[in-house]
Amino acid sequence: MFAPVDFTVRALDPLTDSETVHRWVTRTRGSRLVDVERECMAVAASEHREAFLGLRDGTPAFLLERYDPRHSDELAGLYEPEPGDVGMRFLMPADDRPEHGCVRAVLTTIMEFLFADPAAARVVVAEDDVSDTAAQDLHELVGFEVVRETERPEAPEAGVLLSFCTRSQFEAAAIRFAVLERALAV
Predict the structure, then answer these.
(1) How far, in Å, CA of 121 to CA of 171, rounded?
(2) How many CB atoms lie within 10 A of CB 163?
(3) What is the largest CA-CA distance in the chain?
(4) Which residues, including other chains, have CB under 8 Å from residue 142's CB and lie 6 or more apart?
(5) What global pTM score does this model have?
(6) What Rg, from alpha-carbon coordinates, does the chain have?
(7) Considering 25, 56, 74, 124, which has the largest number of Cβ atoms within 10 A of its Cβ?
(8) What is the DSSP string of the chain?
(9) pLDDT digit string (tens) for 42-72?
(10) Buried b (16+ CB within 10 A) or exposed e, 17-27
């Protein structure tokens, strides 16, 4: 058991938040600040992408990107988007000793945030690392179902795991988790 983790979500400010995002991506991927700033500005200027910062007690805790799969280069050719589909990706800063349950709480917050929009019917995730079973397990905890492993048309050697989570799948997963949590508390 762990203490409940509460987050707030606000729009990413490319002018003030780029340095925070840069620290996060530099540790995991290596990027120049100017490149991160450009990407944050591009997302802010896009009609089909939005970036948000998740905060825990006012401190940046995660980055969320919500996008329209119909206008996504990332999902082009992987599946046929349906009305109500919402693309999602998120990033948390690398932590050598992450708090137990925190990543699940982040993903739950993200899903609640995305489904707060009544037009959102299904969240779509394309996981580039098909061997990342930890990410797959985490997605499954909040209701995602792997639809198929496929490959990117522009990079056939790279596998992609395509997963969907409907509003009802997310709600059912939340109920299952609450029941399990109560059972473990006894």
Answers:
(1) 12
(2) 19
(3) 52
(4) 104, 107, 108, 111, 165, 170, 173, 174
(5) 0.87
(6) 17
(7) 124
(8) -------EEEE--HHHHHHHHHHHHHHHT---HHHHHHHHHHHHH-SSEEEEEEEETTEEEEEEEEE-GGG-TTTTTT----TTEEEEEEE----SSPPTTHHHHHHHHHHHHHHTSTT--EEEEEES-TT-HHHHHHHHHTT-EEEEEEEETTEEEEEEEEEEEEHHHHHHHHHHHHHHHHHHH-
(9) 999 999 999 999 999 899 999 999 999 999 8
(10) bbeebbebbee
Predicted confidence band of residue 74 (pLDDT cuts 50, 70, 90): confident
Residue reference for tokens 């198929």: 148
The answer to whether 119 and 110 have CB atoms below 8 angstroms apart is: no
Mean residue pLDDT of the chain comes to 87
Rounded Cα distance, 58 and 27, in Å? 22
- Cα angle 72-75-77, degrees, rounded to a multiple of 5: 115
pLDDT tier for residue 2 given thresholds of 50, 70 and 90: very low
The tens digit of pLDDT for each residue in 107-159 reads 999 999 999 999 999 999 988 878 788 888 889 999 999 998 887 766 666 67
